[in-house]
Write a structure and sequence with these properties.
Chain lengths: 353, 353
């Protein structure tokens, strides 16, 4: 019986027998072959989606949260706090509820996906909308957690990245080795940092023969790592990566450099195009941020990047249900109202009535 | 590497080597211990949630859909059709996309959860809103599929229940035997019919020593099985079980009678109370319909039903992200807007600034 990633990868994680395991049975997400999407990108790639939307709260954040909250519990904390564009708050609130702890979430004012907000609220978190952006929210959280005995569960908490690194273990365990490339969206940069840590540890221990080239993609309006400097007013439809000053900046640069990879950006128009391709071609509904690496792979392929057969894993960080509004706005085919009769339905289907 | 329920339970399913497997790696959902929720219900129960919201499209419907669409594909169909209150349409549309098939969905006018509708649309289904209820939509689908070479993928398609029965296999495989009780929401009644089929087959083959008592719960405003006659205008906040004339009526009655169980109903007020308990006590966010069996267990416990130690599995049919609007409306703590300053945040948290 599967019981979550701490139990599965205990020997690779900083836990002891005294650590209470706070788990919603996260991890062990599907690695789905994506043949139609691959064909639309490049004839050379064998493409797999690591669908992190299938974690309990619908995003990869649960991997780090199980470890961060278990540790906070072990340390006797009773209150958690985080800044979030949505996914972290949903995960923190859920794991806090599971542990019987309180949770305070600071979210930036303005764009936050409806689904994510509803999660933090139903799990009983106190949600404070700050008149400022993510970076300001995180600064406030750090200040308050330094002053009070509150567990900070943003990815500046090293337990978060420790849990998130397990995604690399699972990919290697499923494929039998590392893929040639691993592409993912880059916002706060914890994900690419953690995945590279996981690949590095597994490789050092002889669990994989190779390491992937890491490909990170930001949104053009929120691309500090591409421009080499923070973005004061980040803007993008992909709310999960609307971050101007990533907490794991150095980790992302290290992942790029050590793997011989790159961090590039794609426009919102490219993101929305890729966002529509995934569910229509493969039946997988991921949140807008997940479309950034898909759009990025298309962009690289058009530049001749994939010129021989290779395996590519793309992390789909969150479920599309997190953001139904963007889905409805982007939809090509709207809802059609018809009378409850055979002829009316056949006509609407384009069949002769 | 896990590759979905047809591969896992192939010998128990009506598939051949010629059946193309159309899968999104559904099934093998978590069986989560729910100690806090159990304590709030009865001192005698060991409670587990079978969290079917962790299927790829966020509901248990994916179990039946992988089999129904694989069969439709084998038979050379290129168009799928279904009537749906939401979850079936989301699943049908996703598996149609995965198979490269067209999908037509008839939904009843009025209440449909936003998340579910967004799924059908992003997966490219043609969604027709019928000026009528679910039962009228299903009647039209049956009429049209009988006339044209279109695969009907509602649960009147026997492949649907064949796939759905695997939930019982997984529960037995995880627990080592059947639980004492299995509680679930009852709408179109396919789920309780299929689960009982699965328990019966596993037991007959010696895979379990016992069989569970089946406990089905309808919403008071949509309780045809409780009243023993169809409900013409079913109404409930739990849109997934807003059905007045269940397709699997006989199967539900059989499950109840053969297992010595019951089918009861709970009010919308009881549903909304239980709906709020799950995410707040256990960190699990399920759609409103899932709260019906939780409320039902509370009701039975208050009547002295559980008077000795027993194991209870409750099926949580879909993810709460399917219906963010109901979540926001039901939320006790609304969003609080605060200035981006330490003092303002501390004050909002209830800490001295």
């Amino acid at each position: 019986m599967y019981q979550g990633l701490i139990k599965r990868y205990r020997e690779w994680l900083p836990v002891t027998e005294q650590t209470p395991v706070i788990s919603l049975f996260e991890g062990s997400t599907p690695l789905l072959p994506m043949p139609r999407l691959a064909a639309a990108i490049s004839p050379h790639i064998a493409l797999y989606a690591k669908f992190e939307g299938m974690n309990p709260t619908g995003s990869f954040k649960d991997r780090g949260m199980t470890l961060a909250v278990s540790h906070a519990c072990q340390e006797g904390r009773t209150v958690l706090m985080c800044a979030s564009t949505g996914n972290t708050s949903a995960s923190a609130a859920a794991y806090a509820a599971r542990a019987g702890m309180q949770c305070v979430v600071l979210i930036p004012g303005g764009k936050i996906a409806l689904g994510k907000l509803s999660q933090a609220i139903v799990h009983g978190a106190k949600v404070l909308a700050i008149e400022g952006n993510f970076d300001e929210a995180l600064r406030l959280v750090r200040e308050i957690c330094a002053e009070f005995p509150i567990a900070l569960v943003n990815s500046v908490n090293p337990m978060r990245l420790q849990g998130q690194k397990t995604v690399a273990f699972e990919v290697v365990d499923d494929l039998g080795d590392a893929p040639d490339y691993h592409a993912m969206p880059v916002g706060n940069a914890g994900n690419i940092t953690a995945a590279w840590m996981g690949y590095s540890e597994y490789h050092a221990a002889g669990k994989s023969a190779s390491m992937p080239v890491m490909l990170g993609f930001q949104a053009a309006g929120a691309a500090p790592l591409v421009h080499g400097k923070p973005v004061l007013q980040p803007e993008t439809v992909a709310t999960a990566i609307r971050i101007g000053n990533p907490a794991s900046w150095q980790g992302a640069v290290r992942a790029k450099e050590e793997s011989g990879g790159l961090i590039d950006c794609v426009t919102d128009a490219e993101i929305l195009e890729a966002y529509a391709m995934l569910p229509a071609l493969e039946g997988v509904f991921a949140e807008p941020a997940c479309a950034a690496p898909v759009a990025g792979l298309k962009k690289l392929a058009a530049q001749g990047f994939f010129n021989k057969p290779c395996s590519v894993v793309v992390t789909l960080t969150g479920h599309g249900l997190k953001d139904p509004d963007t889905a409805m706005q982007s939809a090509a085919s709207p809802l059609v109202a018809v009378a409850a009769s055979r002829d009316a339905v056949l006509q609407a289907m384009g069949f002769c009535a």
